[in-house]
Amino acid sequence: MLRGKLNDLVTLVKADGTVVKEDIKAMVQPKMVFMDDETLPIEPGDHLLHKLPSGLVADYLVDDPGFYPKNFTSMPAHFQTKVRRSGSGNQPASTIIQNITNNYTSHITGDNARVNINSVDNSSNYASKVEVLPIFEQLKELLDSSDIPDVEGQNIRLSIEKMESAQTNQGFMEGYQSFMGHAANHITVFSPLLPALTRLLSG
């Protein structure tokens, strides 16, 4: 039922201006955006740009991602994301993204602390592996202390290990998407580490 109502298109942009995904199917309301892509790395402070028929976009700020796993209701896993208009009028997407980038003042510190998913990187050396390794160890610890069934837990562990051992940005992205897909029904287990993990996508 939800999928048949997703007639809008939005773009997910991180707080630093990084475009994560375009043309996401959604249902946009003044204070809520519904989406059924459970792999989206949404966190408070992100932007959802709503593509309008005119070609311009409206900028919505994310207040609460509002993820609902499949077993929470009879509906499939989905987002009911609480949003508010940014205050800027409808503008071209490139203008709004540039404004977001210019206004970004909060940066992650440390050398090689992020993965440059949206930049050109042909290197076979995943430079930030050493610095971010504790994140993956903590994800495994949360998994080990949870009551996630063995089969699901094994798939989640394999996804974590795929991110951890990634030698390219594409490899990391594939591992991340696999992790979010397998962990969707248990997202609250890993919620303490999701902000740190999603920041690896916004370098």
Structural summary, described in words:
Strands 1-2-3-7-5-4 form a 6-stranded antiparallel beta barrel. It contains 6 helices and 7 strands, in the order βββββββαααααα. The longest helix is centred in the C-terminal third of the chain and has 16 residues. It folds into 2 domains: 101 residues; 71 residues. About 14% of the residues have low confidence. The N and C termini lie far apart (36 Å). Helix 2 packs antiparallel against helix 3. With 203 residues, the chain is an alpha+beta fold.
Mean pLDDT: 80
Overall morphology: globular
Judged by helices, strands and strand pairing, the structural class is: alpha+beta
| Rg over alpha carbons | 17 Å
SS element count, helices: 6
Helix content: 25-40%
Number of β-strand runs? 7
Number of domains: 2
Q: In percent, how much strand structure appears in the residues?
A: 15-25%
- What gap, in angstroms, lies between the N and C termini? 36 Å
Order of helices and strands: EEEEEEEHHHHHH
Show unreliable segments: 105-132
The order of strands across the largest sheet is 1-2-3-7-5-4
Report the major sheet.
Answer: 6 strands, antiparallel, barrel
